[in-house]
Design a protein that fits this description.
The protein is built from six helices and five strands; from the N terminus they run βαβαβαβαβαα. By secondary structure, it is an alpha/beta fold. It has a five-stranded parallel sheet, with helices on both faces. Helix 3 packs across helix 4. It is globular. The two termini are about 25 Å apart.
Length: about 150
C-alpha cells in the first residue's frame, strides 16, 4: 500500500497535482492511504477515487512549523501518530505544497517511515528561487536556508 501525507493547512495547485498522482496509483490497481489534516481531507474527498482510504491527522501546521529539527516538540507527537497510521504501508510520500511548509511533519514522517520499514519520499511539484518569488533580505535568506535543509 502507498501512503500519502497531506499536511498543509492550504489546498492549492500542488495538492491538486498530487491528488492526480494518487488517482493514477488507484487506477493502476494499487492501494492508497491518505493521511491529511481536516482541511486537506475535505478537499480531497471530491477529487479522489472512492477506493482511497482517508485517515485524519491530528497534527496541524502552526507558526513554529519551520523550527529546526528536534528542537520542535511537535516532531515527537507527530512521529508517533504517523507511525501508527503507517501500519501496512510499504511506501510513504510526503506532499509538501511549498518549500518552507511542514518541516516538523516532514521530519516526523521520515522518522516514522524508517521505524515502520517503509521507503519515504518528499513530493515537491516545483521549486522557485528567491527572484521568482520576489523575496528580499531576511525572507530571501530564510527561504534559501529552507532550500538547503530540503
Amino acid at each position: 500500500m502507498h501512503c500519502f501525507v497531506f499536511g498543509s493547512r492550504t489546498f492549492g495547485g500542488h495538492e491538486m497535482m498530487a491528488a492526480r498522482i494518487v488517482n493514477q496509483v488507484l487506477d493502476a490497481g494499487g492501494l492508497a492511504r491518505i493521511l491529511g489534516t481536516p482541511a486537506q481531507i475535505e478537499q480531497l474527498r471530491s477529487r479522489l477515487r472512492p477506493s482511497a482510504e482517508l485517515v485524519l491527522l491530528r497534527h496541524s501546521e502552526r507558526r513554529l512549523e519551520s523550527m529546526p529539527g528536534w528542537l520542535n516538540p511537535r516532531v515527537y507527537t507527530a512521529s508517533r501518530e504517523l507511525q501508527a497510521a503507517l501500519h501496512g504501508c510499504q511506501t510513504l510520500t510526503m506532499v509538501n505544497g511549498g518549500l518552507t511548509a511542514n518541516h516538523a511533519l516532514t521530519l516526523a514522517a521520515s522518522c516514522a517511515a524508517r521505524r515502520a520499514g517503509a521507503q519515504a519520499w518528499i513530493y515537491f511539484p516545483m521549486l522557485h528561487d528567491t527572484d521568482e518569488l520576489g523575496l528580499q533580505g531576511l525572507r530571501a535568506a530564510s527561504y534559501r536556508r529552507a532550500q538547503n535543509r530540503v
